[in-house]
Amino acid sequence: MGAAARQITAAAIASFDACPNPRTRELLQSLTAHLHELIAEMRLTRGEWERGIEILTQTGEITDEHRQEFILWSDALGISMLVDALADERPAEATESTVEGPFWAEGSPLREYGESIAEQPDGEPLWVSGRVLAVGGEPLARAEVDVWQNGTNRLYAVQNPDSPEEHLRGRFVTRDDGSFAFLAIRPTPYPIPDDGPVGQMLASTGRHPWRPAHIHVAVSAGGFERLTTHVFDSASPYLDSDAVFAVKPSLIKHLVRHDPNDPSRPSGVDGEWSSLEVNFVLAPTRMVTAE
Amino acid sequence: MGAAARQITAAAIASFDACPNPRTRELLQSLTAHLHELIAEMRLTRGEWERGIEILTQTGEITDEHRQEFILWSDALGISMLVDALADERPAEATESTVEGPFWAEGSPLREYGESIAEQPDGEPLWVSGRVLAVGGEPLARAEVDVWQNGTNRLYAVQNPDSPEEHLRGRFVTRDDGSFAFLAIRPTPYPIPDDGPVGQMLASTGRHPWRPAHIHVAVSAGGFERLTTHVFDSASPYLDSDAVFAVKPSLIKHLVRHDPNDPSRPSGVDGEWSSLEVNFVLAPTRMVTAE
Asked: Which of A42, A234, A273, B67 gets the highest tally of CB atoms within 10 A of its CB?
């Protein structure tokens, strides 16, 4: 019986021996070997296999253009962050990357320097400003800063048919001195979508679904590696138990709270507000050497 | 960077430390560890991760009540047969099991001894007869023999909206001496569904999608382990390269071809026909010992 199991594993791995693409062969043989090892080590039962098929099927059913439960699994099992870490060969001075998550949307509106990303009243105003720099300190003009964040209702615009489509997202182009600025809202923690298979897994394993307060940022400039990262609020709960393992200490920033009468108050802001100054440092595109 | 990757893996595994159910904890920690090991060992790139998410998403999209692409992945990677092998603690004299596959359907019609499972003319008649026995040789009366097979159009009835729903499937109850008989069609090889992600994988890795000719059988009787198996035609091609790794030598049977004038010809049969005699030997239900 142990011998029968080993024979099946060997046959499944050998079935890819004639694969013409060496990387595809390597990936499928390694995938097969590791899945078989997992199953044999666990002595997975037929009932557990059935449950696994059911969970995958439910994951497929809940996934659509607005909900990506497969990415959520990847995030919740730390896989997205692992892939991020393996790819990260940036110099130490460059801003660290973190997961993109499932809520980035293509084609966010291009907005002016200092413009608000909120399309309707929401939360406490947060003035975000800073510069995009190259490693070494050179300011990068005409870099693109793509930002997106959740509302106080815990949702991103792409999750919420009732909010304006472009709410709380936007693209900003840096000025000659590399500077950018925009009006966001002070971010609040939110749970990852927990009404599907990933949520069931979290609940049954005693894990919470919360992410610490953050704003997503993707920065791109010609000749530099695209940077996908977050800025985390240092005052947020869950910084040490992010449901998707995305916190890196260098990405935690202090958000300064201001009095309504503070003279540096940006125009259009009433009441309490906060500010955040943050620079993004890009690494030059890696040279790809021919094999 | 290597250290960052190891930290993420450790954090993801540790996130399940407080899981109340020890088996769930063990399964999720082992799943996480093996997936991380696979990804780190392969140095999976962001592009490959995206392709993986895309393949899983397409697998979800093509899966519905008539098509189970997740089970097809399990079959094509040898996982279904591995789970079968791990569960198989039957005594050596018992008939060996093999994969159920994605085409079994609940509630096949109960048919009379000797009745045909073909609801419309199809292929060459095959008279299948035999007995259901206990290990040791005792005949089992009133055992249920549930059979299903593909048509000459390569499809099972559940795959084909144009064929009668109950075509080529049926349930038979054994007589007092454990005997059963039915009229099937001589099975023909067929490709597993190859117009989806699994088919793309097979094509890109140089694997063929074919399964050797077989009839599916599931046998159940009170007090005995349910047996899910196949009978393979010894004259079929692909016996040594079944796309789902399900062939076991003991399940390969000789189908006897008969002359149209053979006096043993079953009623209702015209022209060339074949016969197959096969017994199914069941093992008693295992005692579950309290922990």
From this structure: A273
Q: Is the predicted pLDDT of residue A14 greater than 90, yes or no?
A: yes
Q: Is pLDDT above 60 for B290?
A: no
Distances (CA, A) of A204 to A71, A129, B22: 20, 41, 11
Interface contact B77-A35, CB threshold 8 A: yes
B12 part of a folded domain: yes
Chains A, B: CB contacts within 8 A come to: 196
Segment among A74-78, A105-109, A268-272, B241-245 with least mean pLDDT: A268-272
Q: Which residues of chain B does A8 touch, with a Cβ-Cβ cutoff of 8 Å?
A: 78, 81-82, 85, 245
Structural domain that includes position B103: 92-282
Q: Enter the pTM of the model.
A: 0.89
Q: Tell me whether residue A239 is in a domain.
A: yes
Which residues in chain A are contacts of B60 at CB distance < 8 A?
56-57, 59-61, 63, 70
Count the domains in chain B.
Answer: 2
Q: Residue A140 carries which DSSP code? A: -
Give the C-alpha distances (Å, rounded to integers) separating B104 from B68, B110, B236: 11, 15, 22
Give the strand pairing for B125-134 and B110-111.
Answer: unpaired
A32 Cβ neighbours under 8 A, 6+ residues apart: A9, A12, A13, A16, B77, B78
Domain shared by B16 and B122, yes or no: no
Place of tokens 């200092």: A114
Each residue of A218-239: pLDDT tens digit? 999 999 999 999 999 999 999 9
Q: B17, B39, B74, B200: best mutation site toward chain A, by most A Cβ within 10 Å?
A: B39
Measured between alpha carbons, how far is A1 from B89 in angstroms, rounded to an integer?
Answer: 8
pLDDT tens column, B168-222: 999 999 999 999 999 999 999 999 999 999 999 999 999 999 999 999 999 999 9
Whether residue B277 sits in one domain with residue B145: yes
Q: How far are the Cα atoms of A114, B42, B89, B233, B251 from residue B216, in angstroms, in the given order?
A: 68, 38, 21, 12, 11
Which residue of B24, B73, B79, B100 to mutate against A (max A Cβ within 10 Å)?
A: B79
Does the beta carbon of A28 lie under 8 angstroms from any beta carbon of chain B? yes
Q: Is A17 exposed, middle or buried (0-12, 13-18, 19+ CB in 10 A)?
A: exposed
Answer whether residue A291 shows pLDDT above 60: no
Give the DSSP letter string of A80-140: HHHHHHHH----TTSPPP----TT--SSPPEE-TT-B--SS--S-EEEEEEEEEETTS-B-
Percentages (nearest 5) of helix, strand, coil residues in chain B:
30, 25, 50
The per-residue pLDDT for range B66-122, each reduced to its tens digit, is: 899 999 999 999 999 999 999 877 788 999 999 998 899 999 999 999 999 999 989
Provide the shortest C-alpha distance from residue B210 to chain A (in Å). 13
Residues B124 and B266 in one domain: yes
- Domain end, chosen from A76, A107, A135, is at A76
Count of CB atoms within 10 A of residue B164's CB?
A: 11
Q: Minimal Cα distance from B56: which residue of A?
A: A70
Quick one: which H or E segment has residue A180? Answer: strand A179-185
- For an interface test with A, the pick among B9, B34, B72 (most A C-beta atoms closer than 10 Å) comes out as B34
